[in-house]
Amino acid sequence: MTLRVEAISTGYDQVQVLYDLSLEARPGEVLCLLGRNGAGKTTTLKAIMGLLPLQSGTIRLDGQIISTLPPHEVPRQGIAYVPQGRRLFKELTVAENIDVGLMTRGKSAATRERILTMFPRLRERLSQRAETLSGGEQQMLATARALCLEPSVLLLDEPTEGLQPSMIALITDTVRAMRDEGKAVILVEQRIETVLSLADRVAFIENGHSREVVETQTLRDDPSLLNKYVGI
Q: Which CATH number is 216's domain given?
């Protein structure tokens, strides 16, 4: 399914963050959002999930307007979100966190088994409370919980932040697998090497405005845009 964000404006209370921002995430691709801190990347993901009311603009999934839905209905449309900071139910066990994901769209034990096959370390820790997991394991669980929705669109906010290389490799392999299954993936990621290895296209956001969208190969050939929009 194609997700289209069409000229949205939103913010927090009296502080406007996004100004007529537009982007498109296509099936079978990873779209990375890049910009300086405070540019509006996380706000964009929150707006897609209905966590911030729009002042103007529209968000569509395969042509259907979803920006008028209450936040709890957005995941049921097949959009999964792994927020920065993971936002697990830390007092619940690994198994219970996974069950929450399964219940969101009424998925079965077969989905649970498929997810645990993807993340075998979680299978070993099903009875542990989420708060006792390492940072990498918590990121794994947050990603697994999101994938329990069997989403058509996956949003990830800084999924490799603070992780050791082996965990980064696992998360990036998972993102590639989702893309190869035909999912549309929107990724907020500040590790440039990860962006260049994962993204199909890169959308630059500056001060709440959507700027240039380029193929990743273009960025490899001419990294001047990184300096312009990210300061690298």
A: 3.40.50.300
Helix (H, G, I), strand (E, B) or coil at 189: coil
**What domain range is 110 assigned to?**
87-150
Q: Do the beta carbons of residue 16 and residue 30 sit within 8 Å? A: no
Cα(205)–Cα(40) distance, rounded to whole angstroms?
7
User: Stretch 215-231: mean pLDDT, rounded?
Assistant: 91
Which structure tokens are listed for 16? 């406007």
Question: Distance between CA 64 and CA 122 in Å, rounded?
Answer: 35
pLDDT band at 211 (very low <50, low <70, confident <90, very high): very high
Residue 98: CB atoms within 10 A of its CB come to: 23
Q: Is the pLDDT of residue 90 over 90?
A: no
Lowest mean pLDDT among 4-13, 84-93, 142-151: 84-93
pLDDT of 142 higher than 90: yes
Query: Which stretch of DSSP H or E encloses residue 6?
Result: strand 3-12
**Phi and psi (nearest 5°) for 205?**
-120, 135
Q: Is the pTM of this model over 0.85?
A: yes
Sign of CA dihedral 172, 173, 176, 181: negative
Q: How far is the C-alpha of 188 from the C-alpha of 231, rounded, in Å?
A: 16
The encoded tokens of residue 200 equal 């199909």
**Boundary of a domain, candidates 120, 150, 180:** 150
DSSP code for 36: S
Nearest residue to 118 (alpha-carbon basis) of 204, 181, 196: 181
> What is the model's pLDDT at position 145?
93
Q: How far apart are alpha carbons 31 and 215 in whole angstroms? A: 9
